[in-house]
Amino acid sequence: MTSKGEALLLDFWASPFCARAKISLYEKGVNFECREEDLFGGKSDLLLRSNPIHQKVPVLLHNGKPILESTNIVTYIDAVWPSPPLIPSSPYEAAQASQIWRSQGDEQEVAKKNFIEILQQLEEALGNKKFFAGDVFGFVDILLIPITSWFLTYEKIGSFKVEDRVPKLSAWIKRTKQRETVAKALPDPEKVYEFIVGMRKQLGIE
């Protein structure tokens, strides 16, 4: 395991944004502590101190210093623990990766039609490549794969199948989930669905 001081991740099991940080740390072989937050029953004093404005996870505490927001955390991890690299070294490839990421928007905020259109755009960007950067698992893969844990919920609520609309992207999802670093970071889609159903009932949304 790689060590450059203490690393503590404030986590929530169902959050795709927390999973991004976990995958990155696993990919780098970093020895870190993962601390589950009770986001609905009472956030910890450490979370409130570390992220006083937004009070959200993930928060990575590296030697006691907080790094906020999942994309910033992935970028920070790649800079502090440079091997293996997650962000492409060439400026052009890095720009391409950023463009793919920005174009996909926030899946959880869009309607079903827009969601499917975004998936189709991602499939076009992926093409016939193994991963978004080619043969190497990297930045865009890490940012996108955790969100797929919520796809089962989208499918059941929206009455459609992702695989029917974007077969190449679906193949990428299956391939990527076979990586050990990904498999142990992602929540069970069925548990995510049960969690969302419970939340919808609490909010009076059926």
TrEMBL record:
SUPFAM superfamilies named among the record's database cross-references: GST C-terminal domain-like, Thioredoxin-like
GO biological process: glutathione metabolic process
Cytoplasm as UniProt keyword: no
Entry's Gene Ontology cellular component terms: cytoplasm
Catalytic activity, reaction form: RX + glutathione = an S-substituted glutathione + a halide anion + H(+)
Domain GST N-terminal, chain residue ranges per copy: 5-85
PROSITE patterns, per the entry: GST_CTER, GST_NTER
The organism's place on the tree of life at top rank: Eukaryota
Name of the protein in its database record: glutathione transferase
Native source species: Ziziphus jujuba var. spinosa
